[in-house]
């Protein structure tokens, strides 16, 4: 078969998959509503909870993600404001202008996203969104497929995020955690996120993903770049520049709106706290609240005035609507699964079919399935760890290997689950259906690699 025939076959497959996805895969709102009904019926059939009791469980869980929803919304908005500043945007543009080809652009983008995601998922998530958006704007005309670019950033973020900032390994390494008495000791990060096994797995998956996206990227004439309407919407500058005459005629209140005094003072105070915290406690204290505090200060400092700051907020707040509305629905699903005992029933079913040689892999598969319904690793680990950790110990599987399997599975579910893609795709102004053909194949790829890893080294 000629190269031309191979290209036609490859693009026809992706086009057909995209067409199928747009036709049959519903909007993420429909997706979460359907998941709610499915989980409710499963709990009704498997557990001893009655119909009204399950509604109570749903109500009990409905609000548990409110804090996280606000945290993620702030991370998105403050990150957006920082990148919209003249200083940061200028340096991003210089970085983006270094690669001249589609191949070089994708490689640099994926590597930067993966590295920052590994250091901290919050930084990687924000960078994947905002750097990807600027690449789409700046590289329009070179034949860079827009949906593939978004999918590449999203997938490399997910693989890279299997690092030291993951909830499960962090919890197990923290003195006084809820597992310490069960396990009998702490599990250091050097045995989990920083172990040679997991580092090798993450690097292998990352290399495979980059190769996949380079191979699957269409030729220039077939690539669907960012459309003109989206390009104009994303590239529209925030401008509050006023002439000298306009400034002279301002009222005192309007002058304060354009003053740098208060934003600068507050930003400096926050940055002093950030520096002190890092000096005293190191990077072990870096969490989503720390990042939000840091980026809030940077946003105030870089936008300079309250007027500029709020103009950027108004432009960026539209990216958060999916998080605000859909997170409570996912929290309700969490409530049904956790409080009804459905989680325990599913865990017992997987344990029944496990052996020492397959347990780690089964934990990974189980986590993929559970994360499909409850895509929030930290709170879910608190529910599941009391079951999966002791069971692994009974089978002779080291705790650290169970945690590695768990953290690997919790990332992979998000390839085909729109929860984490909501905010991400809002930045690109894309629907999940547009990237699903790429993320689904990427899921099969990284799942196959992880399967081989955990079956070859089961403990």
UniProtKB/TrEMBL annotation:
Keywords: Membrane, Transmembrane, Transmembrane helix. GO terms for cellular component: plasma membrane. InterPro entries: SCFA_transpt_AtoE. The chain crosses the membrane at residues 28-46, 58-82, 102-121, 197-216, 261-284, 290-307, 327-346, 358-374, 435-456. Pfam families: SCFA_trans. The keyword Mitochondrion does not apply. The keyword Nucleotide-binding does not apply. This is Short-chain dehydrogenase. It comes from Acinetobacter pittii.
């Amino acid at each position: 078969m000629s190269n031309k025939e191979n290209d036609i076959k490859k693009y026809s497959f992706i086009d057909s998959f995209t067409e199928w996805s747009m036709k049959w895969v519903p909007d993420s709102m429909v997706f979460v509503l359907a998941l709610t009904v499915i989980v409710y019926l499963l709990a009704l059939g498997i557990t001893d909870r009655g119909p009204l009791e399950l509604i109570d469980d749903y109500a009990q869980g409905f609000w548990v993600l409110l804090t996280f929803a606000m945290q993620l919304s702030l991370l998105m908005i403050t990150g957006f404001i920082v990148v919209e500043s003249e200083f940061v945007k200028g340096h991003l543009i210089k970085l983006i202008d270094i690669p001249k080809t589609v191949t070089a652009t994708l490689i640099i983008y994926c590597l930067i996203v993966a590295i920052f995601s590994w250091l901290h998922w919050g930084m990687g998530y924000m960078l994947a969104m905002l750097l990807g958006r600027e690449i789409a704007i700046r590289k329009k005309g070179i034949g860079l497929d827009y949906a593939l670019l978004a999918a590449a950033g999203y997938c490399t973020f997910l693989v890279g995020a299997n690092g030291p900032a993951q909830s499960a390994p962090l919890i197990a390494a923290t003195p006084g955690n809820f597992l310490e008495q069960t396990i009998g000791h702490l599990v250091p990060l050097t045995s989990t996120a920083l172990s040679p096994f997991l580092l090798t797995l993450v690097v292998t998956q990352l290399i495979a993903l980059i190769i996949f996206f380079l191979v699957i990227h269409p030729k220039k004439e077939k690539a669907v770049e960012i459309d003109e309407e989206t390009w104009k919407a994303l590239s529209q500058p925030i401008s509050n520049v006023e002439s000298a005459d306009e400034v002279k005629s301002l009222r005192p209140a309007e002058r304060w709106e354009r003053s740098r005094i208060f934003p600068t003072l507050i930003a400096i105070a926050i940055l002093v706290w950030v520096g002190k915290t890092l000096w005293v406690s190191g990077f072990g204290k870096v969490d989503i609240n720390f990042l939000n505090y840091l980026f809030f200060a940077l946003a105030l400092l870089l936008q300079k005035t309250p007027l500029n700051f709020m103009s950027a907020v108004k432009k960026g707040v539209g990216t958060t609507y999916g998080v605000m509305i859909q997170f409570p629905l996912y929290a309700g699903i969490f409530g049904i699964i956790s409080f009804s005992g459905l989680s325990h029933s599913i865990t017992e079913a997987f344990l029944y079919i496990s052996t020492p040689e397959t347990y780690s892999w089964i934990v990974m598969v189980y986590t993929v399935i559970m994360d499909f319904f409850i895509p929030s690793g930290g709170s879910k680990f608190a529910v599941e760890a009391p079951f999966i950790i002791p069971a692994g110990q009974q089978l002779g599987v080291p705790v650290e290997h169970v945690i590695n399997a768990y953290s690997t599975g919790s990332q992979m579910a998000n390839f085909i689950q729109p929860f984490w893609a909501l905010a991400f795709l809002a930045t690109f102004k894309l629907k999940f259906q547009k990237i699903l053909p790429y993320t689904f194949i990427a899921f099969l790829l990284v799942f196959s690699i992880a399967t081989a890893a955990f079956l070859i080294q089961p403990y």
